[in-house]
Specification:
Number of helices: 15
Strand content: under 5%
Number of domains: 2
Mean pLDDT: 75
Order of helices and strands: HEHEHEHHHHHHHHHHHH
Number of strands: 3
Distance between the termini: 70 Å
Largest sheet: 3 strands, parallel
Length: 268
Amino acid sequence: MHRDTVEDVLHGLRVRRVSAVLLSATRSCPTELPRAIRVVHEFPRIPAFVLLTRSGTPTAADLLALGNCGIQHLVDVRTPSGWNRLRETLAADVGHERDAEVAAELALDLQETPVDFSRFVQALFTDNERPQTVRTPAAGLGVLPGTLMSRFFRAGLPALKRYLAYAGLVRAARMLENPGLSIADVAHCLNHSSPQSFGRHIFTFMKLSAGEFRRTHDGVRMMQRFREELLAPYRERIAWVSPLIMRPRGMRPQGSRWASLGNEREHL
């Protein structure tokens, strides 16, 4: 989306999900620089790029001022190669980079778990629709919502809604690292009906107010809680659960613990 002023950019950052900010180098003039600084300081998790174009020629001092305010990427797009570099830089640095990092961390925890359980957990962090209900990941993974919930219950795992809630709170904690985003802004971006609803959601699962959650949890801390509370204590149970496998009624999955126990009883 294009915005004519930095103030409009700041407003857009508060009400929309934005992967990156592209600023013209002409914004390095003394009147615009304070606003450019706000973009960096209020939204440190959103990468900002300065574009050097033919429409203006800032001085070396102007560019140095932008660097001093925290902008680390300068791309010269006055030539075709510059546009290619911009595309490559954006592909490497933005998009769903943070979700990809989370997926990589989870891959280590899920190495010895069934493939379909690993698919389920990683889908919580890579689904573009940001699922808040059981129906969304269930549909994406090709299993009925009731079946998915039932298999988690029978395996003695935490409620499926807790996995969904914690994944959403990881995103919320990451967004709240940006001082420029209010709690209401984050509630809107994560599709909660109101800031009050978002606050109740946080209290239900964290026993903290939204403000306390913001002060005590960043994205790393919330991700740590996801792993410590929903994965680590249940490794043995997770090893035997296959939440996505569709099988005829009454059939046990081959090679499961229950099938092994049945065979032992036959020999006895």
